[in-house]
Design brief:
about 350 residues, alpha/beta, Rossmann fold, 12 helices, 14 strands
């Protein structure tokens, strides 16, 4: 992983500081998981390497004996490094976990990659499956922004329309949000998927949606980035029945979460970040299963869903590219002025 330790020690605000610190926090969460697994009687040997976000360093690491003989590789992190590891994975037949980020509009076709966060295209599969489960004859409106990543959802939804014959689909450019009423139906549940991550556009769109909530049954769907907006109008979100699709959601009232925080503070004298929770969950799931399925890690797809602290895990084949991915997302709804996880 690109810990970028030397760069950060020399210049704490270096351009790779955020990435390096995220990797460090992930690794610290993984170490808490390793303590738990050792207590369960699982024997572990862990080697960690700093790629320094340098392709030459990364190539040298791949030549190490410990890497070639590993039962499980966690990393690399960046998309460029994911492409660089493909020849190694193919020649050694080694699976590796992509730990931190969601692949967006560029696919990484590697049969040996396991994406801990599902590809962005899969968000459409998951959301439409949820909507179909909630409503018998849903009216689905997908509002799209101009960014290529914002269009990924709509493109995938068009591919899937035939599988949801009970649903009606329509598409609207966010610049024409004032035409919203033309696409809503009075006698059906309306599910609006707002494919934008630009705060000002999302807020203006939610205001337009809110103007129609007295006339129609409407649920609205957004994405992880919404939770990082500078301000959230809780009343507006509640009136629009905002749901968020996110690979990570931490319920701080959960006792298991409280226990993890206590262990993390005791070991590292600081608070865990979302990356720390990811490191814990992923190491608990992947390392435990790797110890049980050394000869064929694809047996992961036969495992029951693992309930982690910030997400559940159920590994499946990717639908539109090679490799495996976690087939679970969190759906959280704004309710009573806070986000709560919706069971699905």
């Amino acid at each position: 992983m690109p810990f970028c330790s030397k760069q950060i020690s020399l210049k704490p605000n270096t351009k790779n500081a955020d990435l390096g610190n995220a990797c460090r926090e992930y690794y610290q969460g993984a170490l808490i998981a390793s303590d738990t697994l050792i207590e369960l009687g699982i024997s572990l040997s862990i080697s960690s390497y700093d790629t320094e976000k340098d392709s030459n360093v990364f190539i040298k690491i791949l030549k190490k004996k410990e890497v070639a003989e590993a039962d499980l590789i966690i990393g690399p992190v960046t998309k460029e490094a994911q492409m660089a590891i493909k020849p190694f994975s193919a020649s050694k037949q080694k699976y590796h976990v992509s730990p931190l980020f969601t692949f967006t509009k560029t696919k990484v076709n590697d049969p040996y990659v396991i994406s801990a966060n599902p590809d962005l295209t899969y968000y459409a599969d998951y959301a439409l499956g949820y909507i179909n489960n909630q409503s018998k004859n849903p009216n689905i409106l997908i509002i799209q922004d101009k960014d290529p990543s914002d269009k990924v959802f709509g493109a995938r939804a068009k591919q899937l329309q035939g599988s949801f014959s009970n649903a009606s689909f329509s598409y609207l450019d966010i610049s024409k949000i004032n035409d919203l009423g033309k696409f809503l139906v009075a006698n059906k549940p309306n599910h609006i998927i707002l494919c934008s991550t630009e705060e000002s556009k999302v807020n203006s769109s939610l205001n337009a949606i809110n103007d129609t909530t007295g006339l129609y049954d409407i649920s609205t769907y957004g994405f992880t980035q919404w939770m990082d907006f500078s301000s959230i109008n809780g009343k507006l979100w509640e009136q629009c029945k905002v749901h968020i699709l996110t690979p990570q959601f931490i319920d701080y009232s959960d006792q298991a979460v409280k226990d993890f925080i206590g262990k993390y503070r005791a070991k590292f004298y600081t608070e865990p970040s979302v990356f720390s929770f990811q490191g814990y969950d992923q190491f608990m799931f992947f390392a435990k299963n790797a110890s049980q399925n050394k000869n064929d890690i694809k047996k992961l797809i036969e495992q029951n869903s693992y309930q982690g602290l910030c997400n559940h895990f159920k590994v499946a084949f990717k639908q539109d590219s090679e490799g495996l991915q976690n087939a679970n997302l969190n759906i959280v709804r704004w309710q009573n002025m806070k986000l709560v996880r919706v069971e699905y």
